Amino acid sequence: MGSIKEKRNGQTLTVTLKGEIDHHSAVKMRSGIDKLLEESRPSTLILDLGSIEFMDSSGLGLIMGRYKKMNELGGELIVCNPSDSILKIFRLAGLGRFIKIQTK
Amino acid sequence: MKKTDTKSTPINTLKLTLPSLSVNEGIARTVTAAFCAYLGPTATDIADIKCAVSEAVTNCIVHAYKNTVGMIYITAEAFSSSTVKITIRDKGCGIADVKQARVPLFTTDAESERSGLGFTVMESFMDKLYVRSKIGRGTVVTMIKRLGNAATE
Ligand SMILES: Nc1ncnc2c1ncn2[C@@H]1O[C@H](COP(=O)(O)OP(=O)(O)O)[C@@H](O)[C@H]1O
Ligand SMILES: [Mg+2]
């Protein structure tokens, strides 16, 4: 279903999300990412969505939750490589107004 | 959108009943998308339908049958105009105020990182969305979409 893979580079933690993000997979992804955040307390978290095949509004909840978490840690969140269908959902939420989104 | 024929007899029907387990979110959207495939949808149509079905089914699991497990009844009907009508029904807690529930960002479950955008996704990705609900009885979500390039003619 969904899985995560991490890479550290100095103060930057990059987490690549793979597969599908729905309510079923988001629960596990969330605890996986939060565990990494607690361990390494990065100043920048990059969520790479380039390998996501499906995402619904549960993915928005996951991203907005990590945004809040990074704010608490005094760091920033960058979301990169969203597909066109993910961008469509971002637009509904007006996500681009407060989260940095990098497209290819 | 051209006039559709969703009041006439469907040319094909899918009925799917699943218990409200989160693993069934993926099964529900995949099976429904497969049913729609022969109606000539665009890739965007399929992505939209998967997302809308996922939202409605997730709502049955996290809201209607919160803390319990109940059955989710999914029907998809195909019409000759390449239109699909999808109905997702539960016998869960029901919605007190449907109008309020459909407002973007409204959620009764902020603690679990719900975004309050499920109905907004269904409404914008499908052509039509109807929600009927009764407290203590359950909720029926009906979504209609015309598929393929004909939809934009
Ligand atoms: N099938 C349902 N049964 C009971 N309540 C529901 C159902 N679907 C939606 N709701 C209610 O409507 C609200 C809005 O739903 P939605 O737009 O999907 O946002 P979210 O699921 O993120 O809360 C939910 O928070 C819930 O209170
Ligand atoms: Mg929802």
Description:
The complex is a heterodimer of chains A (104) and B (153). Chain A has 104 residues and is α/β, with parallel strands linked by helices. Chain A has a single domain (2-102), classed as STAS domain (Transcription Regulator spoIIAA). Chain A contains three helices and five strands, in the order E-E-H-E-H-E-H-E. Chain A has a five-stranded mixed β-sheet, covered by helices on one side. Helices cover 31% and strands 27% of the residues of chain B. Chain B has four helices and five strands; from the N terminus they run βααββααββ. In chain B, strand 2 (71-79) and strand 3 form a beta hairpin. The termini of chain B are close together. The model of chain B has no long low-confidence stretch (mean pLDDT 94). At the A-B interface, helix 1, helix 2 and helix 3 of A face helix 1, helix 2 and helix 4 of B. The complex binds adenosine-5'-diphosphate and magnesium ion (MG).
Q: Which class of chain B in CATH terms?
A: Alpha Beta
Count every helix of chain A, treating DSSP H or I runs of 4 or more residues as helices. 3
CATH architecture group name of chain A: 2-Layer Sandwich
Tell me the structural class of chain B.
alpha+beta
How many domain regions of chain A?
1
Number of extended strands of chain A: 5
CATH superfamily of chain B: Histidine kinase-like ATPase, C-terminal domain
- The unreliable regions of chain A are none
What's the main sheet of chain B like? 5 strands, antiparallel
Strand content of chain B: 25-35%
